[in-house]
Input
Amino acid sequence: MNNKMLRCIATILGPLVLMLLAASCSSDSKAALTKAEVTLDPNLYTVEHADLFKLATVETLELPSTLNANGSVTADINNTIHVTSQGSGRVVELKVRLGDFVKKGQLLLTIRSTDLAGAFSDYQKAVADERLAQKAFERAQLLYSRGALAEKDLQQAEDTEEKAQVDVRTAEQHVRILGGDPAHPGSLIELRAPVSGTIVEQNISGFEGIKSLDNTPNLFTIADLTQVWVLCDVYENDLGEVHLGDTAEIRLNAYAGKLYRGKVADISRVLDPTTRSAKVRIVLPNHDASLRPGMFAVATFRSQKTQSRIVAPSTAIMRLQDKDWVFRKDGPQQFRRVEVHLLRENPDGMEQVQDGLIAGQQIVNNALEFSSAVAEQAK
Output
């Protein structure tokens, strides 16, 4: 092929080659640009079959404000009796133990008491003195009726008799207070249960000495556990969300899955200076005696007023790197991973969202399934 013909071919093909080279460079630039956008926005995902993933719509619901607080089961103070002995002495027989159920009037323990022995002695002396005073008064009446005794002497004898009767009644009452029976003198105090209930505290053992009432703690504490309290610590910052009469749901570690319901009966007006919290009391019935003092409890308070809350399905939220995420639909085949901040979980499987979403947006219903699919596609 001569030089003239080569020049003609170059003249014809030159522009076409330049156009092909330019198109090739343009295509490479677009590919590079697309790759750069994916790298700079790692939260944007494009999937080929978006219709395979079920979507959920973010909603707004009117919900009561809720608050969780830790607490414990305690006996109702109004139905709790501290049992003490009015007289000192030494225990000779112990009939009950901690945790026993006792009936009203049941014998708890027997004490040999010098106080009771002294009270019986005073009572018997008072009875003897009263008998002597009565005889003297009767004799004075007889002499006065025959004119052999002055009226003032009769009045003196009557006054002595009345004072002797007062001494007898006082000594008898002292014996009864100590737990004795004036008709059966002795030195043994039989301490009996003043009410029916469960012994929740015991501070005495067999053959132990009991001091006077001022120097010894209560021997037993008996509580009627047919009704108990749950006392919760609510911090100062959360007190505005708890009100008298609010509904409370109680969950116990001892009975997982069982829910108890009560109402707020009292909110302490004094804060604990150490924890900056107030005691909130919830009253619960306990007819089956399943609630025992000391059990750990978690209370969920629900206010009587409602507030608008953004909610999303719990399955649509994924926990990753100590943050909560959802996949929001941004286009026909595009989804954006969005961080959300949660308030709390509802019993119906919905999560209350504080921010990150607005009502009406569509998100992937199963975040874990979507994340796994995207990771598989990237391989």
Summary: Residues 140 and 154 are 6 Å apart (CA to CA).
